[in-house]
Description:
Helix content: under 10%
Radius of gyration: 18 Å
Largest sheet: 8 strands, antiparallel
Amino acid sequence: MPAEKGSAFLLKVGNGATPPVYTTVAGLRTTQLSINGEPVVITNKGSGAWRELLSGAGVRSVSVSGAGVFTGSSAETRIKSNALAGILDDYELSFESSEKMQGRFLVARLDYAGDFNGERSYTLALESSGAVVTL
């Protein structure tokens, strides 16, 4: 697998339509994706002192975080509205390889910061709700 540019790792938010039309969240300088799996342990006396896990069981989730400079884009405004209302929305992650991941996410955290004589910046954290699919 060839190396990919970080600038091609984009976070996009849906417009509320069915099917959603995605808009890139402007101003993001960093984006991070974590795929989490909470295993189901089935270790027993016959495991020979080694932990055993049940394949395909447990809780899976995807966490997305990002940080960037506030530009006032429509996508940033939608994310802020979602955070204030506590509602789920459609999001898409796209990569340089043309791979995409789509799912419903909740804005778990949205922070704004600004310095005198500097730009207004923000950080956000999204948590998946339901399946996240790879296209």
